[in-house]
Amino acid sequence: MSGTVLVGTQWGDEGKGKVTDLLANDYDYVVRFQGGNNAGHTVIYGDTKLALHLIPSGIMYDSVTPMIGNGCVIDPKVLCGEMRELEEKGISTDKLLISCNAHLIMPYHRVLDGASEARLGANKIGTTKRGIGPCYQDKFARYGIRVQDLLDAKILRQKIEAALAVKNDILREVYDMPTYTVDEIWHEYLEYAENIRDHVVDGSQLLNAEMRAGKTVLFEGAQATQLDIDHGTYPFVTSSNCTAGGAMTGAGVGPTRIDKVLGVAKAYMTRVGSGPFPTELFDSYGETLGEAGHEFGVTTGRRRRCGWYDAVIIRYAADINGLTDIALTKLDVLGAVDTIKICTAYEADGVVYENVPSQQTAFHHAKPIYEEMPSWQCDISNCRKFEELPQEARDYIERLEELAGVPISIVTVGPDREQTIMRGWK
Ligand code: GDP
Ligand code: IMO
Ligand code: MG
């Protein structure tokens, strides 16, 4: 095994952090390839609980080198804070690598994210307001500022000047908001530069050399397939490619380096922010899942919308990402309900859809067509083998596997690293 891409299959928060942490020790590198501190990945082992936003979920293993790839957007203020927090917990960040080509989130990106959402009013995306969208906008407009610019004070100043020439106009004229001076941002970012300098590398060249030499890499996705800028529920998406292809551009390696694509799928579904969610529950089942699954955002603390497992979405994720395996997470939570529904198709405006409708309006109107299965209604969090699970849980896994057409080779039954059933993952 040389390269594995791990992605979210739904709307995020599937448990990617837990699964990455679980597998990380088998790899030499764990690399984030897109997104920024909009992500919130929880890692729990023993008494230690980490909520990671930017730093890859592999940081706590001595043998693993974590890297933030070129496809990520980095808020250096947040990064320095996260590094400090880890150090305070006794986790060294010395070996963290940061790609010189990753883009920097600037103070005006955060402000513009909030201002743009306020302007959209009822049509808002429900972003995390971390400046993600505005930073990627600048990247594609080709006046973004990159990590490597931090290393040259003169260049950094020129880039800030060029960006502010546009940004200050927008802040003043469009949003009637305060503007920034070059000096204030320059001095602030020069301080971050001192903390980050020693970690900066050419991520792509380093990874390719290492993979050529036989080193293994786990590419840790953030967000998820339905939040992907191209393949998600546009415009209610994030501003990056969270699907497997994003790992190629976001880390600078070719597809021939990848031999496994692991999709993380929650045994029910959640979504934070606006946008369609056909299986969303507005009844006591939704409340029960939210409570039993502690469904509150790691980044913003927002209550997550809850719904039944949607097999249409997972089949779509299997295609878009080329999934070779699925990690099914939070199965234990379904023990809290008496009956479980699985969405196998949709009906919208008199038409049955076996696949995700291409038309946004049809997806907004999609009504789930369900099949129902009994729940096991007991605590399965101590099960460590498939055979130890109650029959109803085994039936549920096997049915989901059949519907996905992809093996479910990992099942998780609790947040701790140990609360996992390995079922053929190699
Ligand atoms: P990520 O963004 O995909 O990494 O997921 P989050 O960390 O945002 O959300 C997943 C939440 O579920 C976290 O609080 C995890 O600790 C928790 N979790 C992960 N796997 C399991 C599981 O199998 N059972 C339960 N009950 N909780 C889990
Ligand atoms: P992890 O990696 C869940 C959602 C936001 C919003 C939309 C756009 O923890 O799974 P953005 O700030 O990215 O411009 O917001 O995307 N979103 C997430 N939802 N988990 C995440 O990350 C998310 N990152 C962004 O709620 O709907
Ligand atoms: Mg999360």
Structure description:
- With 426 residues, the chain is an alpha/beta fold.
- The mean pLDDT is 97.
- It has 3 domains: 3-99 and 200-260, Adenylosuccinate Synthetase, subunit A, domain 1 (Adenylosuccinate Synthetase, Chain A, domain 1, 3-Layer(aba) Sandwich); 103-196, Adenylosuccinate Synthetase, subunit A, domain 2 (Orthogonal Bundle); 265-422, Adenylosuccinate Synthetase, subunit A, domain 3 (Adenylosuccinate Synthetase, Chain A, domain 3, Alpha-Beta Complex).
- The protein is globular.
- Helix 3 (107-120) crosses helix 4 (132-141) and helix 5 packs across helix 6.
- Strands 9-7-5-2-10-1-11-15-19-20 form a 10-stranded mixed beta sheet, with helices on both faces.
- 33% of the residues lie in helices and 20% in strands.
- It has helices at 16-24, 76-88, 107-120, 132-141, 153-174, 182-196, 203-212, 245-251, 284-292, 311-321, 360-365, 391-404; strands spanning 3-8, 29-32, 41-45, 48-52, 65-68, 73-74, 97-99, 103-104, 200-201, 217-220, 260-266, 269-271, 305-307, 309-310, 325-329, 339-348, 351-353, 367-374, 408-412, 420-422.
- The chain has 12 helices and 20 strands.
